[in-house]
Amino acid sequence: GNSVTQMEGPVTLSEEAFLTINCTYTATGYPSLFWYVQYPGEGLQLLLKATKADDKGSNKGFEATYRKETTSFHLEKGSVQVSDSAVYFCALSDSWSGSEKLVFGKGMKLTVNP
Amino acid sequence: DVKVTQSSRYLVKRTGEKVFLECVQDMDHENMFWYRQDPGLGLRLIYFSYDVKMKEKGDIPEGYSVSREKKERFSLILESASTNQTSMYLCASTLRGLEADTQYFGPGTRLTVL
Hints:
Shape of chain B: globular
Shape of chain A: globular
Radius of gyration of chain B: 13 Å
Number of strands of chain B: 11
Strand content of chain B: over 45%
Helix content of chain B: under 10%
Largest sheet of chain B: 7 strands, mixed
Oligomer: heterodimer
Number of helices of chain A: 0
Structural class of chain A: mainly beta
Largest sheet of chain A: 6 strands, mixed
Strand content of chain A: over 45%
Helix content of chain A: under 10%
Distance between the termini of chain A: 41 Å
Structural class of chain B: mainly beta
């Protein structure tokens, strides 16, 4: 079945450091890919998404490119801030099958120190 | 903005009790989901619903049931709570169709079963 594998951390960075969180997937059909973020004490919220190969999703300085050839959707940010401290989840949906469910990775906790 | 609310942020129950977790969304979404979130395991789907009175099992339905009598409300029921159901429970909703894969989450209910 469909699955998502992502870096699990936890990861601690200093402010203004470069961030990469790796995410690879296994899926049949043509999945859409997502990054969700969970700030402390809150539910998940959509950070960015890409619906087809070579699409780039971007939001709040974060970017991720849908790479079908490497089945990857790595999240990057050039300069992290303390406010980026959160748990990050990679996810996919299989739009081909018409399924409206998401499959999530295990999440990665990021702490950014001043 | 879409708003998904959950009846309690924190809940403490005793083993064997019947527990109701309520979720309400205010954007007329067709699809609603219940997940549990555990450290190292990420989000796992318990049940979901595509319409009123309709339910489908997710990946870990054992020990849970659900009810969807109105479109805006989706209840998760623990018939006889056990300590291994101590977890964070997250509700989500989404439209059907092109935007079906973007899920909107509530803040979560942290349930402790003693």
